[in-house]
TrEMBL record:
<dbReference type="InterPro" id="IPR011008">
    <property type="entry name" value="Dimeric_a/b-barrel"/>
</dbReference>
<protein>
    <submittedName>
        <fullName>Quinol monooxygenase YgiN</fullName>
    </submittedName>
</protein>
<dbReference type="InterPro" id="IPR007138">
    <property type="entry name" value="ABM_dom"/>
</dbReference>
<keyword id="KW-0503">Monooxygenase</keyword>
<feature type="domain" description="ABM">
    <location>
        <begin position="3"/>
        <end position="93"/>
    </location>
</feature>
<keyword id="KW-0560">Oxidoreductase</keyword>
<dbReference type="Pfam" id="PF03992">
    <property type="entry name" value="ABM"/>
</dbReference>
<dbReference type="InterPro" id="IPR050744">
    <property type="entry name" value="AI-2_Isomerase_LsrG"/>
</dbReference>
<dbReference type="GO" id="GO:0004497">
    <property type="term" value="F:monooxygenase activity"/>
</dbReference>
């Protein structure tokens, strides 16, 4: 069963250029992963520094493997100092 994920990132405005560079690597490498059906970065048009990562994975196992990938671990480490608040992550299965 496919699993959907939406992660919300809120960055300090001083780090936006750096954050986008880190996201570019994360998105490029993640899209190569087995089981990744969708991995898109969306910038909130009304809230500068707020980004949504919209993900779709074939299975929850694929998502779990993604979480341990080097490019994900590096991203988390690198962005931790740039975030204005904790990342919110929502996971679920399609209802309708």
């Amino acid at each position: 069963m496919n699993i959907h994920v939406v992660a919300v990132f809120k960055f300090n405005e001083n780090y936006l250029m750096e954050a986008v560079e880190l996201f570019q690597t994360l998105v490029r490498e993640t899209r190569k992963e087995e089981g990744c059906l969708q991995y898109d970065l969306i910038e909130d048009k009304n809230n500068k520094g707020t980004f949504f990562m919209v993900e779709l994975w074939e299975t929850e196992d694929h998502l779990n493997r993604h979480s341990g990938q080097d490019h994900v671990l590096d991203f988390r480490k690198d962005v931790s100092k740039m975030l204005e608040s904790s990342t919110q992550v929502y996971k679920g299965f399609k209802t309708l």
